[in-house]
Design goal:
With 416 residues, the protein is mainly α. The chain is built from 18 helices and no strands. α3 runs antiparallel to α4 and α12 (276-294) runs antiparallel to α13. The protein starts with a helix and ends in a 20-residue tail after the last helix.
Length: 416
């Protein structure tokens, strides 16, 4: 009886010790709200003491993950990229220790363990890139290596696994690596088996970096290949088909980034020759995106001021300049339809107006476009519009046309 009580007391005492160390580790993590490498090191020191003197208690993976989280936070919050990289290296070293097969007393890492270390490398890469530090790509590469190691583990595909993919995708995208981020996104879509819920933020990051990358791409084969790939992904996101859809709802930004990607290759003088059919294909993709956004007035991805600004630029860059009458001009007819919707929804901005005025410079197409929307109302006429400066013109137009667009400072600040 006494022996049993003693055993119970001893067990309770050891349990209390474990809880004390867990509390101490969490206290170290919260020691500084902005997370530092020194506080993360302190939490690791306490863990090492627990391993050395109380190994028989078999501390579980949650304790190790707490320490990994401390290093991930330090990698994010440290202002010095060298300290961020050091934090990620520490986290990586601890994970490698957990992956060793010859230490039965140490718990096996779970998907969350990998996520924390991948986040540490991602944070280090972002810190390095922000300060033009040379190791940004190396940190991103280490994050992807861990993603490959996770795939080799006997773990299921779940939210944490998807989050690991997302972290690596966004890291490569932030570093301007469009092809690597796009390939990983396609891999994540296939791996999710179209059943796990995905986050549009990862898709938008890839669409954005593709648009940025295409602005300097001169190989038209690569341009059209990349445009086709991201357009296909966007269509799958928006599709209601059980066999073709992806379990993620696109937002307005998703469509906007793909539209921007369509005209990006033609925003600067190009080093190669292209024909009208190539530009027409790019314009068709942009118009398809716009049509999908506009078909349902209650859609969660309705066009906004950025959508219209991008569409006018797409039309300007991708349609040929035709010296024919305004009534049959492809540019004019397309712009008239889009401009009507833009004014109706109140998304007109200075950027859109300037793009239209420059694009429709043949004859009086621009003036005709403005007057057609006004239905001959107001005190503006053809003669006034032809000579009115851009800024004066914008404030003279009906306020209803720009009621929502005025809040977008970037689209109203200067010529785009």
């Amino acid at each position: 009886m006494l022996l049993g009580l003693g055993t119970f007391y001893s067990y309770s005492h050891l349990t209390l010790i474990v809880l004390t160390f867990v509390l101490a580790i969490h206290s170290c993590i919260a020691l500084e709200r902005h997370g530092t490498l020194s506080s993360a090191k302190l939490s690791q020191t306490l863990l090492q003491i627990l391993e050395e003197y109380y190994s028989s208690l078999n501390p579980d993976i949650a304790i190790y993950n707490s320490v990994l989280n401390a290093f991930a936070r330090a990698a994010k919050e440290e202002s010095d990229p060298r300290l961020s990289l050091a934090s990620a290296q520490r986290a990586d070293g601890l994970l490698c220790k957990l992956l060793r097969q010859d230490q039965a007393e140490i718990p096996r890492p779970n998907e969350y363990s990998f996520l924390l270390v991948i986040n540490a490398w991602s944070n280090a890469a972002s810190s390095a890139a922000a300060l033009s530090f040379v190791d940004g790509n190396n940190a991103a590469q280490n994050a992807e290596i861990l993603l490959k190691r996770l795939q080799m583990q006997t773990v299921g595909i779940n939210k944490a696994t998807i989050a690991c993919y997302g972290a690596v995708i966004r890291t490569w995208a932030s570093l301007g690596q469009s092809e690597r981020s796009l390939c990983l996104l396609e891999e994540m879509v296939d791996m999710s088996d179209r059943t796990l819920l995905l986050d549009p933020i990862h898709f938008n990051a890839v669409f954005d970096v593709c648009a940025r990358d295409l602005a300097s791409e001169t190989d038209l084969t690569k341009v059209m290949s990349k445009l086709s790939r991201i357009h296909k992904i966007l269509v799958q996101m928006e599709s209601s088909s059980e066999y073709h859809s992806i379990n993620v709802e696109p937002d307005t930004s998703s469509f906007n980034q793909v539209i921007r990607a369509c005209y990006s290759p033609w925003t600067t003088p190009r080093g190669v020759q292209d024909d009208e059919s190539i530009r027409q294909t790019a314009l068709d993709i942009a118009h398809d995106c716009y049509t999908r956004m506009s078909k349902d007035y209650n859609s969660p991805h309705r066009p906004d001021a950025h959508t219209y600004a991008h569409m006018f630029k797409a039309v300007a860059c991708l349609t040929p300049s035709l010296n024919i009458t305004e009534s049959t001009s492809e540019k004019y007819v397309l712009c008239k339809t889009i401009f009507h919707a833009c004014c109706r929804d109140g998304h007109l901005t200075k950027s859109s107006l300037w793009t239209l005025r420059k694009m429709l410079s043949h004859g009086d197409e621009f003036v005709t476009l403005i007057l057609s929307e006004m239905d001959n109302q107001g005190n503006l006429n053809k003669e006034k519009l032809l000579v009115m400066p851009d800024d004066s013109l914008f404030v003279s137009l009906p306020g209803e046309w720009s009621r929502n667009g005025r809040k977008h400072n970037a689209l109203n600040r200067h010529r785009q």
